[in-house]
Prior knowledge:
Blueprint (H helix, E strand, L loop, with lengths): L3 H8 L3 H9 L6 H14 L5 H8 L4 E6 L6 H15 L3 E6 L4 H13 L4 E4 L7 H8 L4 E4 L11 E3 L1
Parallel strand pairs: 1-2, 1-3, 3-4, 4-5
Helix pairs in contact: 1-2, 1-3
Amino acid sequence: MTNIKVVAELAGVSATTVSRVLSGKSYVSDDTRMRVMEAIQKTGYSPNVMAKGLKMGRTNTIVLMLPDIQNLIFPMITRGVEDAARQKNYTVILCNTDENSGVEKDYISTMKSRLVDGFIVGSMLPNSIHIRNLRTEGFPLVLINRFYARDEGKIDIVA
């Protein structure tokens, strides 16, 4: 697998210069940019999204956790979330929980370890402390479809 150092060596520049070309946020001469782009094309280099996510502290990934995708309201909600996420260059991971708090906890644990940027949850039950804790742990959290009065003003809600 080609990495940024291989591209840099082929282009005759530093890895930092390759990074600048890819981000487009710093000045790089046209000649250098062209050499880097040719090296990228020759090597088939593609940035490692996970490595970038670790470095930047975000992955542009959100979780949509639903109780039952077969419930007729959720395909429309899923489509709306997907459309909005795509416009902002986010990826959506769909988690179907079958309204099982054990499954919810497992998904939450797995998704937190994958450094997701936030959660949209349509399956919260009255005693879902594990979901409410996402907010206190610093994860953006939006409840959809189902919420409880005690969460109003504490958690973002779309209903």
